Amino acid sequence: MTPPVFPPLFSGLDAKGTSPFVLACAEASNVCDAGLVTYDLAYDRLRAAIVFAPEVPLRDAACMLPLCGVGFQNALGALAPPEVGVHLGWGGEIYLNGGLCGRLSIAASSRDPDALPDWLVIGITLDLWPPSDDTGLTPDATALYAEGCGEVDAVTLLEAWVRHTLVEINTWADDGPARLHRNWLGLAQGLDTDMTISGHRGTYIGIDENLGLLLKTEGETRLFPLTDLLTEPA
């Protein structure tokens, strides 16, 4: 396999079968340069992660999670047939034509929303092939090559994800979150449906200016910030 080629200021590191998300967090903790892209490309799954060095507090920097989702949609949209629809769940889920196909994850050096984190990592996992030929066993899940994307090469998709994410980062840095807010809402999966978050049942009615989820429950609207999605790499 030819190693992926990334834009200037980005560098690649092959995880060689281990978790790129865990590797990226470890490298970031050891003070690697921002722009490191770790990856593991198997025949049935694409996994990768990007290391960021935020210059804003975590509550604002956490928008890199939905931003990377928009970057992925733009990347696949440029490579896949036009009938392939990409939608994004607030929790990082990636849907192709309505079926769950992958997920984005977020970790940072701090969980304090007001702190400036030393590093932040966004990981992506995407299923390329379904685990079974009998897709009827998992009707709510799918895979990239099961949705008419057989011509999309995993290396090319990874390269495109990084490029399109960089474009979104530059736009966000120049113009603020308004465009990201608008673009992400256009891709939102599950909007205006009932859901349960952290034990609270309600209707997903939208996102606030920092892309936190707004859940309408009986008598009130609750806000769940993106920092609630921070996870420990494992």
From TrEMBL:
Residue ranges annotated for the DUF4444 domain, each copy included: 196-232
InterPro entries: aa-tRNA-synth_II/BPL/LPL (IPR045864), BPL_LPL_catalytic (IPR004143), DUF4444 (IPR028044)
Native source organism of the sequence: Falsihalocynthiibacter arcticus
Protein name: BPL/LPL catalytic domain-containing protein
Residue ranges constituting the BPL/LPL catalytic domain according to the UniProt record: 6-185
